[in-house]
Write a structure and sequence with these properties.
Layout (H helix, E strand, L loop, with lengths): L12 H9 L3 E8 L2 E6 H18 L6 E5 L4 H12 L3 E5 L5 H10 L4 E4 L2 H9 L9 E4 L8 E2 H9 L4 H9 L5 E6 L9 E5 H18 L8 E4 L6 H13 L2 E4 L7 H8 L3 E4 L1 H13 L3 H22 L6 H20 L7 E4 L6 H9 L4 E5 L9 E2 L12 E2 L4 E4 L4 E5 L18 E2 L2 E10 L5 E6 L4 E2 L5 E2 L2 H8 L4 E7 L7 E6 L1 H11 L5 H4 L3 H15 L10 E4 L19 H7 L1 H7 L3
Parallel strand pairs: 1-11, 3-4, 3-5, 4-8, 5-6, 6-7, 10-11, 12-13, 13-14, 25-26
Antiparallel strand pairs: 1-2, 8-9, 14-15, 15-16, 17-18, 18-20, 19-20, 20-21, 22-23, 24-25
Protein name: Acyl-CoA synthetase
Pfam family, one: AMP-binding
InterPro entries: AMP-binding_CS (IPR020845), AMP-dep_synth/lig_dom (IPR000873), ANL_N_sf (IPR042099)
Length: 596
């Protein structure tokens, strides 16, 4: 198959793909659980033609912003591609956003229209519509709403209109034109609308494709992408575009988080992008939930796997004794772990938040090519990445082709390349996110080794400075604690305090079955106060503390009576922690840890 359709913009991507890939499957989805349907690239282009022409008939002008408020599904992709093919600018809104958050994004972007998934999402916009003077129309994908135009009506209008105008507009889009307004997760303050051009996303797509060629990780298999991340996020958007660019098929998740592993096993993807939490949970099930002696055997086998796979990648001969032990581990462990991901992965990639080195090594040793990368919305998703051939676990890899990285005097990571965004819409910022002489100030503290591998130390804004003047980076301790089977989230606290403390939340998926076996209460709130649970958590804290210098160790721990959540404002849609909100919501808990 063709490597890519290699256009200059995203606007005509779907039409180029239809010409190149025709009747190849483009999308698969479940009309009901375990019943998969699909449409081809030709049919995808026809759907985009209808929807895009319908939007033009509705009055969409070149340069108009159009928001999409929907979950990850084929109709999201069609609406997105239709907006940009018509010369519009897509505005991403997370489906989990509250009406207030929707009001900020839709209002700040001055969106002229919005495409909503269903009546519930329409209701969010209706509740704040008096604060959206630029908003003229609402389209609803599923069902009916008296406040919205049904998508079927948009498609009908599109069918009655000559598609020539849509094709003319898509061909006229320039790489410098805005492509998408992607709003940051807003871990501090209101989300900022990153203006990303067509050229920005084409640059990062080209960089990824060049890297695959340079590293020899191209595959004869057709690309199958399992996608459950929110398409409103830059990470998922990039993989969607890469799949369509390469003629791959996207298998969209069914919408139930409890079915993700089962769907992955059924789909057998070649590519699986995810945030760390999914891999952390699988790791906990495979390793952390086992008795200590069994854990040691599993990790020793995985370490052997790492050694042998690295030798194979380097072209070195594997001694017979190692090969024999590797083959035994393959039968006993490795193939079972790979089966959890469908057994067909070329690449699993994790980003958006840190992940423990031990987890990466475990999966790689088992033959699951899980690689960590680094990027931001401001870099059109990516900047650095590890690959199967060239990796250094514990780092976020080396810069992608065409991208440069260096460290500023204060330790901040700076990035330069064609993927760096065009600035924040209607919100200038002189520090974080600033671009000086082409260099993006990422806000991350980092180091770069002699081979070019980048290591992230922590966020500048997350650094804790105790009252004694000690600078602490929370990430290492927090990641260690999250590897415990009992702990869901961990938040270090201690800015301008005499010593650091930590708040942890319990993972109900593991702690409740354990509690039932012990005859303990089946309530997370009650378990958070139970001596046996307190002892389990303290053991995990002690083990994490043992890896740190004495001033960096947390002195006290509190167990929350509930998990952190998006609904309570403590997590972003990509599960990043909003430290300020956690500090406010659990202020009394933190205060109690310093009461003496």
């Amino acid at each position: 198959m063709n490597r890519t359709v290699a256009g200059k913009t995203i606007a005509d991507l779907v039409f180029r793909a239809a010409e190149a890939y025709g009747d190849r499957p483009a999308a698969r989805w479940q009309s009901e659980p375990d019943t998969w349907e699909q449409f081809t690239y030709r049919e995808l282009a026809e759907r985009v033609d209808e929807f895009g022409s319908g939007l033009i008939e509705l009055g969409l002008d070149v340069g108009d912003r159009v928001a999409v408020l929907a979950s990850t599904r084929p109709d999201w992709s069609v609406a997105h591609l239709a907006v940009v093919a018509a010369g519009g600018v897509h505005v991403s809104v997370y489906p989990t956003n509250s009406p207030e958050e929707c009001a900020w994004v839709v209002g700040n972007s001055e969106a002229r229209g919005i495409v909503c998934e269903n009546a519930d999402q329409v209701a969010k916009i209706v509740a704040v519509r008096d604060r959206l003077p630029a908003l003229e129309w609402i389209v609803v994908l599923d069902g009916d709403s008296t406040e919205a135009i049904p998508a079927a009506e948009i498609r009908r209008r599109g069918r009655e209109r000559d598609g020539e105008e849509l094709r003319r507009r898509s061909a006229a889009v320039d790489p410098t034109d805005p492509y998408v307004f992607m709003y940051t997760s807003g871990t501090t303050g209101p989300p900022k609308g990153c203006v990303l051009s067509h050229g920005n996303y084409r640059a990062i797509m080209t960089a990824n494709d060049s890297l695959d060629v340079l590293d020899g990780i191209t595959s004869d298999k057709d690309m199958v992408l399992y996608l459950f991340l929110p398409l409103a996020h830059a990470f998922a958007l990039l993989f969607q575009l890469m799949a369509f660019d390469r003629g791959g098929v996207i298998a969209y998740w069914g919408g139930d988080t409890t079915r993700i592993v089962g769907e992955v096993m059924a789909v057998k993807p070649t590519h699986l992008p995810s945030v760390p939490r999914v891999f952390e949970k699988v790791y906990t099930l495979a390793v952390g939930s086992k008795p200590v002696e069994e854990q040691e055997r599993i990790l020793a086998a995985a370490a052997l796997g790492v050694r042998v796979r690295d030798m194979e990648q380097a072209g070195e001969p594997v001694p017979a004794q190692l090969r024999e032990a590797f083959d035994a581990a393959e039968a006993a462990l490795f193939q079972g772990v790979r089966a959890l991901f469908g057994g067909n992965l070329d690449l699993a990639i994790t980003g958006a938040a840190p992940i423990a080195k031990e987890i990466l090594e475990f999966f790689y040793g088992c033959g699951v090519p899980l690689m960590e990368g680094f990027g931001m919305t401001e870099t059109s998703t990516g900047a650095t990445v590890n690959t199967v051939r060239n990796h250094r676990f514990g780092t976020v890899g080396r810069p992608l082709p065409g991208i440069e990285a260096r460290i500023a005097e204060d330790g901040e990571l700076l990035i330069k390349g064609g993927n760096v965004f065009q600035g924040y819409y209607r919100m200038d910022d002189a520090s974080f996110g600033a671009v000086t002489d082409g260099w993006l100030h990422t806000g991350d503290l980092a180091s770069i080794d002699e081979d070019g591998y980048v290591s992230i130390v922590g966020r500048k804004k997350d650094i804790i400075v105790t009252s004694g003047g000690k600078n602490l980076t929370p990430a290492n301790l927090e990641n260690d604690l999250k590897r415990s089977p009992w702990i869901s989230q961990a938040v270090m606290y201690g800015d301008r305090r005499p010593y650091p403390v930590v708040l942890v939340t319990l993972d109900p998926e593991t702690v409740l079955p354990w509690a039932q076996a012990q005859g303990l209460p089946q309530s997370v709130a009650e378990l958070s106060r139970h001596p046996m649970v307190i002892e389990l958590v303290q053991q995990a804290v002690d083990a994490a503390n043992a890896k740190l210098a004495q001033p960096e160790q947390v002195k006290k721990v509190a167990i929350a009576d509930r998990d952190l959540a998006q609904e309570t404002g403590e997590l972003t849609p990509t599960l990043k922690i909003k430290r300020k909100i956690v500090g406010e919501n659990f202020a009394d808990v933190f205060d109690s840890l310093y009461a003496d």
